Amino acid sequence: MILLALLSTKPLPPLPHIFGRGVDSGSVPWTILFTLTLLTLLPAIVLSMTPMVRLLVVFHFLRQALGTQTAPSNQVLMGLGLMMTWFLIQPVLADVEKQAVDPFRQGQLTGLEAIERGCDPPRLYMLRYAREKDLALFTAAALVPKPNRPQDLPLRVVAPAYMLSELKAGFEIGAVLFLPFLLVDMIVASITTSIGMFQLPPVVISTPLKILLFVMADGWNLLAGSLLKSF
Questions:
Q1: Residue 230: what pLDDT?
Q2: Spans of the chain below 70 pLDDT
Q3: How far apart are CA 21 and CA 99, in angstroms?
Q4: Long-range CB contact pairs, 226-229, < 8 A, 24+
């Protein structure tokens, strides 16, 4: 989250030492190493700590329900998921910039202090959607003492609990999304079977009907609106 906020704002001044406020000759290699490590982990962070988990699950359920196999392609679904994720996560990035990035630029915080402060807004965001059952599971597995409030849980507990909760929510939405298209498949299969069209696979007829139904109902608009309202 800190890295996303850094990339979305004005360039940084000369890089300070990531573990302190001063600049020395040995600070640049450590800063480069730290930045490259964050860039390597960025895809995993985006997939695990943002709404993209739920969005991608629902999009793939939709593609399976329509029976279009590879349309839209994975790249298109990933791009749509990234844009919607960027739209939804903007308030969190603004909080990260205000609490961590700006003080770090002004030299008021060290790198480690900025990271610690910058983790608070994403933690609060994930706690909003993480189920208590999932939080309890990872709290017990990590042998973490039960905190007085959920905000005191470490990020290593909150992040996997959030992912499980988002996967559950995505599967719930996908199951509901599947039902009308399943109904079309059943109707087409019963009709083709009753008139003796055994050599014609029902999917050949049902797929264009499902696509037509989805387009006529303005499905993408309805789906995007429902997903945005679910957050």
A1: 81
A2: 1-31, 34, 109, 111, 197-198, 200, 202
A3: 17
A4: 226/173, 227/54, 227/55, 227/58, 227/84, 227/173, 228/84, 228/87, 228/88
Q: How does 144-156 read in b/e, with b if 16+ C-beta sit within 10 Å?
A: eeeeeebeebeee
Separation of CA 82 from chain center: 8
How far is Cα 59 from Cα 44, in angstroms, rounded to an integer?
A: 19
pLDDT at 28: 58
**Number of other CB atoms surrounding residue 231 within 10 Å:** 15
Residue-level pLDDT at 14: 44
Whole-model pTM: value is 0.72
Give the integer Cα–Cα distance in Å for 76 and 62: 13
Give the closest residue to 56 by CA, choosing from 222, 169, 181: 169
Nearest 10 degrees: Cα torsion 33, 79, 87, 161: -70
Question: What is the model's pLDDT at position 146?
Answer: 77
Q: Which residues, other chains included, contact 123 with Cβ-Cβ below 8 Å and sequence gap of 6+?
A: 151, 153, 155, 158
